């Protein structure tokens, strides 16, 4: 096999870790609350700025990242309380539109507050060479941390009462009170965890990408595409779909031109969704 | 134990219960019988807080159920086995039991109570890792009852436990109810299968279009011509 092709494949795998983490937060929230956060990628953007300023303000990176996770988790909890909860019983289009409104608000607020410049932390971890292939160390680190984050969430959902309730509520909302479960609390906890995942993703993205107010436009559509391809609300499906999509991006970029990677991925998405409208891996799980 | 007085309940403009008064004493098994649409399920749902009562009073051992948020009613010792079982189909049997034991006080006794319900229903123990949705109808009913017992209730509400099951399984389900009774739980059961349920309970109330029309000992009601004609097809 061509060594550059192999390098592209492996880079695709590394990218998939981050994308899978991003998709997971959105899928979790949709699976439990039945609400799509159109502004999800903008929450990540808020986290990236938070980490940027904390780090530039002199905090060690890990502390800045922890603050970023808390910041986005808090923002997500507020999003749920102030925006989602009032429209929870209304048609889905209303929920889409209000979170869409939050998207524009966050983009505009970030532009006003931070300007349009591209910023980065200036952290470089260098690259790792194997044979003739070169991999960015920060991407390898992001991949590992993303997988660990997902593993922790998995254990939480499988092993704890709260996690079991989060899985149960998507299967039968109405009878939750009979179990002694306060659904409002489960929704709030789920939103906060979804925000925490977005915050973790933000902490990994600042190592790999420049920060700017419209970065959500770069990643948002990609995250939604992965979630829909995997079956919206299906967390395992989203995980697998992230690997499929990032292979198209990585290999597409390597075979054609970098800019074409995304186009190839979206072309595949359109064909796939035509044949399997419910997503490659079915609906909620 | 459970006292209802002049209870009203409604779905929007439609009133489903009119001034229902009844009581269940500790250790009793009581049935509410009546035709489809008489308000039996509504009555249990009102007790559990799944729908709000619109008038009257409702207490469990002195706790006012009407002012309690629905998810706290289970704390008073009421467990509800809902109509058509309502298991979490894509959770394992064990995870369904975990949901039954969600209350902090029940979590502490999870292992002990799991042993207890698995001793009552050994078939569930064999299949503890199996998804609840893959069980047969009778096994699902066992699972739903076991889940209710995981909270350590005093009073178990059964909503049409025989519904949708094959006749041979129906007999088994009434045996289950009898066993739950003999385990010392107080039972309130609503059923359309009047002939069978009257063999299991001490007393019964007859509910017709949202009102209590008759009440009495199970044997007495089973002997009443009116009930035999209208509800037992005899």
Give an account of the 3D structure.
The complex is a heterodimer of chains A (285) and B (234). Chain A is mainly α and 285 residues long. Chain A is built from ten helices and two strands, in the order ααααββαααααα. Chain A has one domain: ABC transporter involved in vitamin B12 uptake, BtuC (Orthogonal Bundle). In chain A, strands 1-2 form a two-stranded antiparallel sheet. Chain A is globular and about 60 Å long. The mean pLDDT of chain A is 92. With 234 residues, chain B is α/β, with parallel strands linked by helices. Chain B has a domain of 124 residues: P-loop containing nucleotide triphosphate hydrolases (Rossmann fold, 3-Layer(aba) Sandwich), CATH 3.40.50. Chain B has ten helices and ten strands. The N and C termini of chain B lie far apart (34 Å). Classes of the chains: A mainly alpha (285), B alpha/beta (234).
- State the helical fraction of chain B: 25-40%
DSSP helical segment count of chain A: 10
Helix/strand-derived category of chain A reads: mainly alpha
Measure the end-to-end span of chain A.
37 Å
| SSE string of chain B, helices as H and strands as E | EEEHEEEHHHHHEHEHEEHH
From the alpha-carbon coordinates, what is the Rg of chain A to the nearest angstrom?
A: 19 Å
User: How many distinct helices of chain B?
Assistant: 10
Ranges of chain B where pLDDT stays below 50 over 5 or more residues in a row are: none
User: What share of the residues of chain A lie within helices?
Assistant: over 70%
- What's the CATH topology label of the domain at 1-76 and 187-234 in chain B? Rossmann fold
Biggest beta sheet summary of chain A: 2 strands, antiparallel
Helix and strand content put the structural class of chain B at alpha/beta
**Which series of helices and strands of chain A comes N to C?**
HHHHEEHHHHHH
Main β-sheet, spatial strand arrangement of chain A? 1-2
């Amino acid at each position: 096999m061509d060594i550059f092709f192999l390098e592209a494949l492996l880079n695709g795998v590394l990218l998939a870790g981050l994308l899978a983490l991003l998709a997971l937060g959105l899928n979790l929230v949709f699976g439990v609350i039945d609400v799509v956060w159109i502004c999800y990628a903008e929450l990540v953007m808020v986290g990236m700025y938070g980490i940027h300023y904390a780090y530039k303000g002199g905090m060690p990176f890990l502390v800045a990242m922890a603050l970023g996770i808390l910041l986005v988790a808090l923002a997500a909890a507020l999003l749920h309380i102030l925006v989602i909860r009032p429209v929870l019983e209304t048609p889905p289009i209303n929920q889409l539109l209000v979170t869409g409104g939050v998207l524009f608000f966050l983009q505009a607020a970030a532009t006003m507050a931070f300007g349009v410049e591209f910023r980065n932390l200036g952290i470089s971890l260098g690259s790792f060479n194997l044979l003739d292939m070169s991999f960015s160390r920060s991407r390898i680190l992001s991949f590992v941390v993303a997988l660990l984050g997902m593993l922790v969430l998995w254990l939480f959902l499988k092993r704890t009462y709260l996690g079991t309730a989060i899985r149960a509520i998507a299967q039968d909302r109405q009878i939750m009170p009979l179990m002694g479960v306060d659904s409002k609390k489960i929704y709030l906890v789920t939103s906060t965890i979804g925000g925490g995942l977005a915050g973790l993703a933000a902490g990994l993205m600042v190592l790999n990408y420049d920060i700017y107010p419209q970065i959500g436009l770069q990643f948002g559509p990609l995250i939604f595409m992965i979630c829909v391809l995997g079956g919206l609300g299906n967390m395992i499906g989203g995980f697998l779909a992230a690997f499929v999509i990032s292979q198209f991006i990585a290999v597409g970029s390597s075979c054609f031109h970098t800019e074409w990677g995304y186009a190839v991925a979206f072309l595949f998405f359109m064909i796939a969704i035509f044949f399997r409208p419910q997503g490659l891996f079915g609906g909620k799980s | 134990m459970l006292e209802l007085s002049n209870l009203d309940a409604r779905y929007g403009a439609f009133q489903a219960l009119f001034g229902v008064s009844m009581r269940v004493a500790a250790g009793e098994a009581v049935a509410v019988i009546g035709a489809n649409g008489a308000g039996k399920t509504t009555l249990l749902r009102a007790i559990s807080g799944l729908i709000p009562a619109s008038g009257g009073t409702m207490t469990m051992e002195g706790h006012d159920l009407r002012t309690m948020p629905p998810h706290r009613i289970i704390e008073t010792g009421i467990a509800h086995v809902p109509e058509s079982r309502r298991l979490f189909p894509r959770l394992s049997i064990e995870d369904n039991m975990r949901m039954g034991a969600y209350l902090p006080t029940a979590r502490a006794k999870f292992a002990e109570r799991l042993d207890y319900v698995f001793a009552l229903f050994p078939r569930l123990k064999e299949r503890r890792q199996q998804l609840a949705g893959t069980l047969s109808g009778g096994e699902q009913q066992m699972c739903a009852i076991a889940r209710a017992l995981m909270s350590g209730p005093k009073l178990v509400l059964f909503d049409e436990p025989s519904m949708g099951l094959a006749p041979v399984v129906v007999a088994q389900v009434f045996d289950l109810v009898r066993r739950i009774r003999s385990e010392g739980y107080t039972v309130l059961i609503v059923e359309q299968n009047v002939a069978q349920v009257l063999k299991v309970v001490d007393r019964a109330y007859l509910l017709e279009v949202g009102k209590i029309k008759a009440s009495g000992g199970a044997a007495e009601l089973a002997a009443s011509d009116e009930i035999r004609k209208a509800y037992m097809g005899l």
